[in-house]
Hints:
heterodimer; A: alpha+beta; Alpha-Beta Plaits; 9 strands; B: alpha/beta; N-terminal domain of TfIIb; Rossmann fold; Dimethylsulfoxide Reductase, domain 2; 4 domains; 6-stranded mixed beta barrel; 25 helices; 43 strands; 20% strand; globular
Amino acid sequence: MARYGMVIDVRKCLGCMSCAVSCKMENSIAFGVFRAWVNVAERGDYPQVRRHFLPRLCNHCQNPPCTWVCPVKATFYNKADGRVVINRDRCIGCGYCIEACPYASRFASPTVHTADKCDFCGHLLAIGEKPACVRNCLGQCRIFGDLDDPNSEPSILLAENPVQVIRPELGTLPKVYYIGADILTQAQGRWE
Amino acid sequence: MGTPEISRRTFVKLSAAFAAGAGLSLGLGTDLLNLMKIGAAEAKELSQQLAGVLKKYTACAMCPAECALEMWIKDDRVFKIYGNASCPFNDGTACAKGAAGQQLIYSPDRLKHPMIRVGERGEGKFKRVSWEEAIDFVAQKLTKIKSEFGAESIIMDAGDVTDRDQYYRLFFAYGSPNCTEHGSICDTPRRHGPKLMLGGKRIEPDIMRPVLVRQKNGSLQYDKQYRTKLIIFHGWNPFVATRITYEGRGTVAAKVENGCKIIVVDPAHTNTAAKADMWLPIRPSTSPDFFAAMLRYILENDDPTRFDRRYIDWGFKKFSLGWEEFEASFKSWWNKSDPINNLPYFSLEWAENRTGLPKEQIAEVAHLFGITKPAALVWGMQSPGHNYNGYVASILGTALNIITGNFDVPGGAIDTEITKASKGGNATGKHFKNKKVKRTIDGKEIEGEVERLHMDAYGDWPAGWDEVVGDFPRRFLEGVTINYGPFKGHKYSIKAFFIRTGNPIITGSATYRWKEALTAKEKNGEYKVPLVVNIDSLYLETGMYADVILPEASYAERMSLSDIYPPHALLFLRDAVIKPLHECKNPTDIMNMLAKRLADLGDKDLKASDFWEKYKSEEDFVDEMLAGSPGMFNIGEPLPYPNFPEGYKITGTPESLEAGKVNINHEKKEVKGELLTVKWLRAHKGVAVWPMSWNRYRRFDKEKLEYVPNKTWPPTGSKMIEFSFKRYEQYNKLIEASGIIPIGLKQLGWERYPQSFYWFETKWNPYTNPEYAKYAKDFPFQIICGRVHHAMSGTQLVPWLAETPAEGTFMPMNNAFEYEIGDADGKGQIQPKRNKFKANSWCVGTMAMNASDATKMGVKTGDQVMVENPLGKKTTTKVFVTEGIRPGTVKMGFGTGGRFTPGMGGTYAQRNYTPNHNELVDPDNLSPIMGMPTYADMIVKITKV
Lengths: 192, 945
């Protein structure tokens, strides 16, 4: 049993978009849709301006609204490992979950024609590898591991740093935590 | 289907399948026990995906950083791309571009077979031919050119610098000294100071971690500690422009883990500025002004008795030559008044007026740099590398790092060019240039080495030691005149231009000038440059102007080495991880084929023993390249090899050196271990790492009980740090002997290259150069350009990268279009697919403009504008409005727009409304010492379309 989660140290995000492309490479994602991406926002007026990056992916919520609306129970919170996953054989592509996700993390796959989203690269976890976005992250800001293991890298970071989650008021209990993302956790969509 | 848990047995089975196919150890053994539980559907998918996967270690070549990669190969196809965790350069990471490699390798737009032109140059009309036919066509022409005009009439431009040695070897042997790569259109002014003063090229902060370091107990350990306390990035944007991969990772890690402060001086709020503590939006083309004010402030306010004014570490004087003259020459300007503002040179007020930055801010940066140690001052490609007077900035920057005690200290400023491993050796064939040839000049027969026929070094650019690609078009039209050396007075025309993986039509100064030079004809209707050969994996714009196109194996299909930017000896293999696709061939095969055909046609200079019999495979060639590696000196602290004599040159595998399996030659001061080979690298995940050390310019003298210069390093003439520019002496001697002043010096009104600090103004900057002040009213914007890492000349055909916006100059702002791209099919393959792309879904070249300027002009993001320079040249672009750029400055990406080759994939469809910045560059304004195009010096007016 595990409870996989991610800590993203936004202070170390270079805005390089390696996560977005590495994910597409790993999961063979077609043009126009993303399992992982980076929000970019500019705040302030010249010269007191700052560009902010917020790396994004499915939050793997412990209380995931997307799963409540699935009419065929194709998407669910996998208690064995803490991932929110989609059983593609069951998914009928109705799109309810896509609408229900408050984080715009889901999309209709143009290639497999089901709902699609990040699954923490389950196939890589199975052979002891980390998700592709974590592995390739140029700033090494994506830290992945078992949140139930107090000695895992993300657990240590969670213990030592103030962290944020996106839209905590929704009560979704995301398992993707951010360090240093204070002003961006309300951001939506891809580009501002 | 539910999610029945997979049994342990199934796991073992599928993992065994994975491992069995690997051929290399996957390190899975004990990991099997840690496997998480997955559903049957995933397990099935996984076993299908991973059956027969091979893990191979190689190096990228999509940018010059050439990161070490781990590619997963299935059925001889690249299936996954990750960073290679065994290589400390990129430490297991891979950028968006590196990860997108599949879409380049399997692009439907790649060159697939040899072709010969059938239409006019530029029309892009070719017929498919066989390799034999193409090679014969080229060899016949080369044979004729050599006999009629001499071998020097041929230029081999190996473009993007990677994997060029085979082509150098071929053409050096053929008899031309004119082999080059893109360096001279990259950033030569930026490299100038380090070359003069250190024998180096580029100064980078010491932030590559981990680094392998000798410990007190004799063992080697990876050191992960960041020591840098301050980095000033001046016109240098490692996060987005050319990416020295560790610099991004190291900058944020030094900041978070070591409290390092980051200052970015740049007219644009780059992604690097996004992580800075201070952003100083300096006026473009004023880098030397900023550095000169820093140096003056530091010299005027340094006080060794006050802890908060102890800027200068005067110890540097012991390890350097010529400081007094340099200082005197620098100070001689202090009382002179600058005609543009009537202020004394290099004063804070003067710098404020010229850079547009508050003088308090300039003083603060100078103070912080003086007081914070270790620190690094780093300057970049964009500025001063692309400025007419960038040389001055790079000399001042180098001096600032040295006098503050930051040069080569832990956490300080390191010149990576002179710390990296040596490679290439005899494979490059430089010795062929020593061959004596005869030429008849004014009726007299003259004999001299091939090298002395060099079009730049003995032509118009004696100090253009990286060659002068930006001035090729002029020589295509006017020919070459040798001004120096034994062949003085010899004239020759350029009769063949080989361009390999470069694209000078878009990147080598003004596009229109290159087109003009490559299409100009003689009276008899023949092209002035009668043979243009393009060797590439991709069909770029320059290919449209070629007579013959030879398809080269992509970086996944050929073998070579990577080593460019590490702060110590570190080499990694670029392996041929798949067989060449289509009819592509690797550089070794192309070299051998052409050499053999030339020999068959009677060329005695190309011998079997130098080519096809010597190099039966790529591996033979790369093994020879490796023979002198790492070629490092046993110097610095901690001493890399305490068991070997200090100061000796070291070659051999890390393993053999560590085991002491070496021969020591005291006469030659050499320690030789077992030769590094491709085989060794393959057995070590493609990577060889030798120990890092610091303070490599000094040794401890046990008699004097003090540090003294080791006279081994840095590799200047004196093996000391040189503030006197002794390197220039050789060029001054040439001028002395010949009496001809080089064109660049004439522009400056100089007769010789100076011996110490010098100053001259940039052109096309109305705010610093009085002669150009008159343009300010009608051309109110300064235009700068910056590289967008994922949108370089040869990678924009990659659709995934069209989804990675950057900095307001590469944004999802396309018009709707339809195009066939290579797209991911959901099953791990790239397949051709006709797509309808909505507006604003594909990143295109755009121009960033300050919001207040946009308001004044009544333009908003997405509006189309025309941008025109005082030479009447224009380009069009959409505007991206931002607060993140200095008012009065606009910025475009380099090579991001106006891409008119169909080889650019979907980006080709955007050619009519995206900007080609290089239509605006002044091709006659080459920087005066090394002939670099001044990409960042231009002013424009902007009108809404």
